[in-house]
Amino acid sequence: MTDPILSVEGVTKTYKGGVTALQPVDLEIRRGEIFALLGPNGAGKTTLISIVCGIVTPSAGTIRVDGHDALRDYKGARRKIGLVPQELSVDMFERVIDTVNFSRGLFGRAPDPAYVEQVLRDLSLWDKRHAKLMELSGGMKRRVLIAKALSHEPDLLFLDEPTAGVDVELRRDMWKLVHRLRERGVTIILTTHYIEEAEEMADRVGVIAKGKLLLVEEKAEMMKKLGKREMVLTLAEPMTAIPAELGEWNLTLEDEGKRLRYIFDARAERTGIPSLLRQLGDMDIGFNDLETYKSSLEDIFVDLVEGTRA
Ligand SMILES: Nc1ncnc2c1ncn2[C@@H]1O[C@H](COP(=O)(O)OP(=O)(O)OP(=O)(O)O)[C@@H](O)[C@H]1O
Sorted alphabetically, which keywords does the UniProt record give (predicted)? Predict the structure, then answer.
Protein backbone atom coordinates (compact mmCIF):
# COMPACT_ATOMS: atom_id res chain seq x y z
CA MET A 1 0.00 0.00 0.00
CA THR A 2 1.42 3.40 -0.85
CA ASP A 3 1.83 5.71 2.07
CA PRO A 4 -0.60 4.23 4.58
CA ILE A 5 -1.63 6.51 7.45
CA LEU A 6 -1.18 3.66 9.90
CA SER A 7 0.90 0.56 9.63
CA VAL A 8 0.96 -2.14 12.25
CA GLU A 9 3.53 -4.89 11.86
CA GLY A 10 3.86 -8.06 13.87
CA VAL A 11 2.17 -6.55 16.92
CA THR A 12 1.50 -8.97 19.77
CA LYS A 13 0.32 -8.51 23.32
CA THR A 14 0.43 -10.84 26.26
CA TYR A 15 -0.82 -9.21 29.45
CA LYS A 16 0.99 -9.73 32.73
CA GLY A 17 -1.43 -12.39 33.93
CA GLY A 18 -0.55 -14.43 30.85
CA VAL A 19 -3.58 -13.62 28.67
CA THR A 20 -2.55 -13.40 25.03
CA ALA A 21 -4.78 -10.63 23.73
CA LEU A 22 -3.13 -10.28 20.31
CA GLN A 23 -1.35 -12.77 18.09
CA PRO A 24 0.95 -11.16 15.55
CA VAL A 25 -1.20 -8.55 13.82
CA ASP A 26 -0.30 -6.88 10.53
CA LEU A 27 -2.55 -4.14 9.27
CA GLU A 28 -2.30 -1.11 7.04
CA ILE A 29 -4.86 1.65 6.97
CA ARG A 30 -5.31 3.86 3.93
CA ARG A 31 -5.57 7.57 4.15
CA GLY A 32 -9.17 8.69 4.18
CA GLU A 33 -10.85 5.35 4.62
CA ILE A 34 -13.37 4.19 7.17
CA PHE A 35 -12.15 0.92 8.59
CA ALA A 36 -14.28 -1.23 10.87
CA LEU A 37 -12.65 -3.66 13.24
CA LEU A 38 -15.34 -6.19 13.89
CA GLY A 39 -15.16 -8.79 16.60
CA PRO A 40 -16.88 -10.33 19.58
CA ASN A 41 -16.19 -9.46 23.22
CA GLY A 42 -12.63 -10.00 24.25
CA ALA A 43 -11.37 -10.31 20.67
CA GLY A 44 -8.57 -7.81 21.25
CA LYS A 45 -10.05 -4.71 19.59
CA THR A 46 -9.49 -2.37 22.49
CA THR A 47 -6.03 -3.79 23.09
CA LEU A 48 -5.04 -3.07 19.49
CA ILE A 49 -6.37 0.48 19.62
CA SER A 50 -4.73 1.08 22.98
CA ILE A 51 -1.39 -0.08 21.62
CA VAL A 52 -1.62 2.22 18.60
CA CYS A 53 -2.54 5.10 20.89
CA GLY A 54 0.36 4.38 23.22
CA ILE A 55 -1.81 3.48 26.21
CA VAL A 56 -0.72 -0.17 26.25
CA THR A 57 2.81 -1.34 25.42
CA PRO A 58 2.99 -4.12 22.84
CA SER A 59 4.94 -7.28 23.62
CA ALA A 60 6.42 -7.14 20.11
CA GLY A 61 6.00 -5.37 16.81
CA THR A 62 6.14 -1.90 15.32
CA ILE A 63 3.55 0.78 14.69
CA ARG A 64 3.91 3.78 12.44
CA VAL A 65 1.37 6.58 12.45
CA ASP A 66 1.77 8.88 9.47
CA GLY A 67 5.46 8.09 9.43
CA HIS A 68 6.01 8.44 13.18
CA ASP A 69 7.15 5.39 15.11
CA ALA A 70 4.59 5.06 17.89
CA LEU A 71 7.14 3.76 20.38
CA ARG A 72 10.23 5.81 19.60
CA ASP A 73 8.35 8.99 18.69
CA TYR A 74 5.29 8.65 20.87
CA LYS A 75 4.43 12.33 20.88
CA GLY A 76 4.71 12.73 17.14
CA ALA A 77 2.50 9.71 16.58
CA ARG A 78 -0.02 10.54 19.28
CA ARG A 79 -0.56 14.06 17.96
CA LYS A 80 -1.93 12.58 14.75
CA ILE A 81 -4.53 10.54 16.60
CA GLY A 82 -7.89 11.31 18.13
CA LEU A 83 -9.26 8.65 20.44
CA VAL A 84 -12.89 8.36 21.46
CA PRO A 85 -12.89 5.88 24.33
CA GLN A 86 -15.67 3.52 25.29
CA GLU A 87 -16.04 4.93 28.75
CA LEU A 88 -17.07 8.40 29.74
CA SER A 89 -14.09 9.76 31.59
CA VAL A 90 -14.93 13.41 31.98
CA ASP A 91 -15.36 15.87 34.79
CA MET A 92 -19.11 16.32 35.07
CA PHE A 93 -18.82 19.83 36.46
CA GLU A 94 -16.86 21.09 33.51
CA ARG A 95 -18.48 23.03 30.70
CA VAL A 96 -18.52 21.68 27.17
CA ILE A 97 -16.39 24.33 25.52
CA ASP A 98 -13.84 24.34 28.34
CA THR A 99 -13.29 20.61 28.24
CA VAL A 100 -12.80 20.70 24.47
CA ASN A 101 -10.38 23.63 24.66
CA PHE A 102 -8.53 21.85 27.43
CA SER A 103 -8.08 18.72 25.33
CA ARG A 104 -6.68 20.82 22.51
CA GLY A 105 -4.19 22.41 24.86
CA LEU A 106 -2.99 19.01 26.05
CA PHE A 107 -1.57 18.40 22.59
CA GLY A 108 0.25 21.69 22.61
CA ARG A 109 -2.02 23.26 20.04
CA ALA A 110 -2.56 27.03 20.19
CA PRO A 111 -6.16 28.07 20.86
CA ASP A 112 -8.29 28.24 17.72
CA PRO A 113 -11.82 29.36 18.59
CA ALA A 114 -13.00 29.11 14.97
CA TYR A 115 -11.92 25.47 14.67
CA VAL A 116 -13.45 24.52 18.01
CA GLU A 117 -16.68 26.28 17.06
CA GLN A 118 -16.79 24.28 13.83
CA VAL A 119 -16.30 21.00 15.68
CA LEU A 120 -19.04 21.85 18.17
CA ARG A 121 -21.38 22.92 15.40
CA ASP A 122 -20.71 19.73 13.45
CA LEU A 123 -21.64 17.74 16.51
CA SER A 124 -24.73 19.86 17.25
CA LEU A 125 -23.18 20.91 20.53
CA TRP A 126 -22.72 24.60 19.85
CA ASP A 127 -25.95 25.60 21.60
CA LYS A 128 -24.85 23.57 24.60
CA ARG A 129 -21.32 24.90 24.75
CA HIS A 130 -21.81 26.55 28.12
CA ALA A 131 -23.68 23.61 29.65
CA LYS A 132 -22.04 21.50 32.31
CA LEU A 133 -21.46 17.92 31.20
CA MET A 134 -23.76 16.62 33.91
CA GLU A 135 -26.60 18.56 32.33
CA LEU A 136 -26.29 16.71 29.02
CA SER A 137 -28.05 13.57 27.83
CA GLY A 138 -26.03 10.40 27.39
CA GLY A 139 -25.91 10.90 23.64
CA MET A 140 -24.64 14.43 23.99
CA LYS A 141 -21.95 13.32 26.41
CA ARG A 142 -20.75 10.90 23.77
CA ARG A 143 -20.60 13.72 21.27
CA VAL A 144 -18.50 15.68 23.72
CA LEU A 145 -16.03 12.78 23.77
CA ILE A 146 -15.84 13.01 20.00
CA ALA A 147 -15.38 16.78 20.13
CA LYS A 148 -12.53 16.31 22.62
CA ALA A 149 -10.93 13.70 20.37
CA LEU A 150 -11.15 16.07 17.39
CA SER A 151 -10.00 19.12 19.32
CA HIS A 152 -6.36 18.92 18.22
CA GLU A 153 -7.14 18.32 14.54
CA PRO A 154 -6.10 14.66 14.30
CA ASP A 155 -5.78 12.90 10.96
CA LEU A 156 -6.73 9.51 12.34
CA LEU A 157 -9.75 9.08 14.57
CA PHE A 158 -10.40 5.97 16.64
CA LEU A 159 -13.92 5.31 17.74
CA ASP A 160 -14.08 2.47 20.23
CA GLU A 161 -17.60 1.11 20.02
CA PRO A 162 -19.14 4.44 19.17
CA THR A 163 -22.72 3.30 19.41
CA ALA A 164 -22.66 0.74 22.22
CA GLY A 165 -25.72 1.33 24.32
CA VAL A 166 -27.08 4.28 22.35
CA ASP A 167 -30.52 4.42 20.83
CA VAL A 168 -31.23 3.85 17.15
CA GLU A 169 -31.62 7.52 16.37
CA LEU A 170 -28.29 8.48 17.87
CA ARG A 171 -26.68 5.56 16.14
CA ARG A 172 -27.83 6.91 12.78
CA ASP A 173 -26.59 10.37 13.73
CA MET A 174 -23.21 8.86 14.54
CA TRP A 175 -23.07 7.14 11.19
CA LYS A 176 -23.79 10.42 9.42
CA LEU A 177 -21.21 12.18 11.49
CA VAL A 178 -18.56 9.62 10.62
CA HIS A 179 -19.23 10.11 6.92
CA ARG A 180 -19.01 13.88 7.32
CA LEU A 181 -15.69 13.59 9.10
CA ARG A 182 -14.36 11.43 6.33
CA GLU A 183 -15.41 14.05 3.79
CA ARG A 184 -13.19 16.43 5.71
CA GLY A 185 -10.26 14.10 5.24
CA VAL A 186 -10.20 12.32 8.61
CA THR A 187 -9.34 8.62 8.46
CA ILE A 188 -11.56 6.63 10.79
CA ILE A 189 -11.08 3.33 12.53
CA LEU A 190 -13.98 2.10 14.55
CA THR A 191 -14.51 -1.02 16.57
CA THR A 192 -17.86 -2.62 16.78
CA HIS A 193 -19.79 -5.74 17.68
CA TYR A 194 -22.56 -4.69 15.36
CA ILE A 195 -22.41 -6.15 11.92
CA GLU A 196 -24.86 -3.62 10.56
CA GLU A 197 -22.61 -0.87 11.76
CA ALA A 198 -19.66 -2.24 9.80
CA GLU A 199 -21.91 -2.89 6.87
CA GLU A 200 -23.35 0.61 6.95
CA MET A 201 -20.25 2.64 7.60
CA ALA A 202 -17.06 0.95 6.55
CA ASP A 203 -15.11 0.88 3.32
CA ARG A 204 -13.10 -2.05 4.60
CA VAL A 205 -13.71 -4.49 7.38
CA GLY A 206 -11.26 -6.44 9.49
CA VAL A 207 -12.62 -9.37 11.44
CA ILE A 208 -10.82 -10.14 14.67
CA ALA A 209 -11.44 -12.99 17.09
CA LYS A 210 -9.30 -14.35 19.90
CA GLY A 211 -6.56 -11.88 19.15
CA LYS A 212 -6.22 -12.94 15.54
CA LEU A 213 -7.01 -10.75 12.58
CA LEU A 214 -8.83 -13.33 10.52
CA LEU A 215 -9.55 -11.32 7.43
CA VAL A 216 -9.27 -7.83 6.03
CA GLU A 217 -11.36 -7.07 2.99
CA GLU A 218 -13.14 -4.42 1.05
CA LYS A 219 -16.63 -4.66 2.41
CA ALA A 220 -18.24 -5.37 -0.94
CA GLU A 221 -15.55 -7.87 -1.85
CA MET A 222 -15.99 -9.69 1.40
CA MET A 223 -19.72 -9.99 0.90
CA LYS A 224 -19.18 -11.25 -2.62
CA LYS A 225 -16.44 -13.70 -1.79
CA LEU A 226 -17.93 -15.27 1.22
CA GLY A 227 -21.58 -14.74 0.61
CA LYS A 228 -23.94 -17.62 0.59
CA ARG A 229 -27.23 -17.05 -1.02
CA GLU A 230 -30.59 -18.48 -0.33
CA MET A 231 -33.81 -18.98 -2.16
CA VAL A 232 -37.02 -19.69 -0.33
CA LEU A 233 -40.03 -21.19 -2.07
CA THR A 234 -43.46 -21.00 -0.50
CA LEU A 235 -45.02 -24.26 -1.55
CA ALA A 236 -48.53 -24.56 -2.92
CA GLU A 237 -48.96 -27.82 -0.96
CA PRO A 238 -47.05 -28.48 2.26
CA MET A 239 -44.61 -31.41 2.20
CA THR A 240 -43.96 -33.90 4.96
CA ALA A 241 -40.42 -34.65 3.79
CA ILE A 242 -38.04 -33.71 1.03
CA PRO A 243 -38.49 -36.25 -1.77
CA ALA A 244 -35.53 -38.55 -2.28
CA GLU A 245 -35.17 -37.37 -5.91
CA LEU A 246 -34.17 -33.96 -4.56
CA GLY A 247 -31.53 -35.43 -2.27
CA GLU A 248 -28.60 -33.90 -4.13
CA TRP A 249 -29.78 -30.34 -3.59
CA ASN A 250 -28.95 -28.39 -0.44
CA LEU A 251 -32.57 -28.08 0.67
CA THR A 252 -34.30 -27.73 4.00
CA LEU A 253 -37.96 -27.87 4.78
CA GLU A 254 -39.34 -25.23 7.11
CA ASP A 255 -42.46 -23.80 8.58
CA GLU A 256 -44.28 -27.15 8.91
CA GLY A 257 -43.40 -28.15 5.39
CA LYS A 258 -44.73 -24.98 3.80
CA ARG A 259 -41.40 -23.48 2.81
CA LEU A 260 -38.45 -24.96 1.01
CA ARG A 261 -35.09 -23.28 1.46
CA TYR A 262 -32.28 -23.72 -1.04
CA ILE A 263 -28.79 -22.57 -0.10
CA PHE A 264 -26.23 -22.04 -2.81
CA ASP A 265 -22.81 -20.56 -3.16
CA ALA A 266 -22.77 -17.09 -4.62
CA ARG A 267 -19.23 -17.71 -5.82
CA ALA A 268 -20.27 -20.56 -8.05
CA GLU A 269 -20.73 -19.74 -11.70
CA ARG A 270 -24.16 -21.26 -11.79
CA THR A 271 -26.71 -21.02 -9.04
CA GLY A 272 -28.52 -24.17 -10.08
CA ILE A 273 -31.82 -22.37 -9.67
CA PRO A 274 -33.13 -22.98 -13.20
CA SER A 275 -32.47 -26.71 -13.06
CA LEU A 276 -33.90 -27.00 -9.57
CA LEU A 277 -37.07 -25.21 -10.66
CA ARG A 278 -37.29 -27.41 -13.74
CA GLN A 279 -36.98 -30.51 -11.63
CA LEU A 280 -39.66 -29.27 -9.24
CA GLY A 281 -41.90 -28.60 -12.25
CA ASP A 282 -41.30 -32.14 -13.54
CA MET A 283 -42.29 -33.47 -10.13
CA ASP A 284 -45.45 -31.33 -10.05
CA ILE A 285 -44.31 -29.45 -7.00
CA GLY A 286 -45.93 -26.04 -7.24
CA PHE A 287 -45.06 -22.90 -5.34
CA ASN A 288 -46.74 -19.55 -4.76
CA ASP A 289 -43.78 -17.41 -4.00
CA LEU A 290 -40.03 -17.31 -4.55
CA GLU A 291 -37.64 -15.08 -2.63
CA THR A 292 -33.89 -14.87 -2.74
CA TYR A 293 -31.61 -13.51 -0.03
CA LYS A 294 -28.00 -12.64 0.11
CA SER A 295 -26.27 -13.62 3.29
CA SER A 296 -25.42 -10.63 5.40
CA LEU A 297 -22.10 -9.77 6.90
CA GLU A 298 -23.60 -11.34 10.01
CA ASP A 299 -23.57 -14.82 8.51
CA ILE A 300 -20.06 -14.37 7.22
CA PHE A 301 -18.93 -13.18 10.60
CA VAL A 302 -20.50 -16.05 12.48
CA ASP A 303 -18.93 -18.52 10.05
CA LEU A 304 -15.52 -17.00 10.47
CA VAL A 305 -15.62 -16.69 14.21
CA GLU A 306 -17.02 -20.17 14.70
CA GLY A 307 -14.23 -21.46 12.54
CA THR A 308 -11.73 -20.26 15.16
CA ARG A 309 -13.33 -22.11 18.05
CA ALA A 310 -11.11 -24.75 19.47
N1 LIG B 1 -5.29 -4.93 31.41
C2 LIG B 1 -5.51 -6.19 31.12
N3 LIG B 1 -4.93 -7.17 31.83
C4 LIG B 1 -5.12 -8.47 31.54
N5 LIG B 1 -5.90 -8.90 30.52
C6 LIG B 1 -6.53 -7.97 29.78
C7 LIG B 1 -6.37 -6.58 30.03
N8 LIG B 1 -7.10 -5.90 29.12
C9 LIG B 1 -7.70 -6.83 28.34
N10 LIG B 1 -7.36 -8.07 28.74
C11 LIG B 1 -7.78 -9.34 28.09
O12 LIG B 1 -7.35 -9.32 26.75
C13 LIG B 1 -8.34 -9.88 25.88
C14 LIG B 1 -8.75 -8.87 24.82
O15 LIG B 1 -9.47 -7.79 25.43
P16 LIG B 1 -9.93 -6.50 24.66
O17 LIG B 1 -10.50 -5.55 25.67
O18 LIG B 1 -8.82 -6.01 23.82
O19 LIG B 1 -11.08 -7.06 23.73
P20 LIG B 1 -12.19 -6.28 22.91
O21 LIG B 1 -12.24 -6.95 21.59
O22 LIG B 1 -11.96 -4.83 22.96
O23 LIG B 1 -13.50 -6.65 23.73
P24 LIG B 1 -14.81 -5.76 23.99
O25 LIG B 1 -15.54 -5.80 22.70
O26 LIG B 1 -15.49 -6.55 25.06
O27 LIG B 1 -14.37 -4.41 24.41
C28 LIG B 1 -9.45 -10.33 26.79
O29 LIG B 1 -9.27 -11.68 27.08
C30 LIG B 1 -9.27 -9.48 28.03
O31 LIG B 1 -9.76 -10.13 29.16
Answer: ATP-binding, Nucleotide-binding, Transport
Task: Give the number of C-alpha atoms closer than 13 A to the C-alpha of residue 127, restricted to the C-beta side.
Answer: 3
The three-class DSSP label of residue 90 is: coil
pTM for this entry: 0.77
Q: Residue of the nearest CA to atom 31 in ligand 1?
A: 42
Q: Report how many domains make up the chain.
A: 2
Is 165 within a domain?
yes
Rg, the chain, Cα only: 24
Integer Cα distance of 36 and 150 in angstroms: 19
For residue 186, which of 86, 66, 97 has the smallest C-alpha distance?
Answer: 66
Q: Does one domain contain both 52 and 198?
A: yes
pLDDT per 10-residue tile (average), the chain, 310 residues: 91 94 96 92 92 94 95 93 83 92 93 94 92 90 91 94 76 82 92 79 90 88 67 92 91 93 75 87 91 67 62
Evaluate: CB of 19 within 6 angstroms of ligand 1.
yes
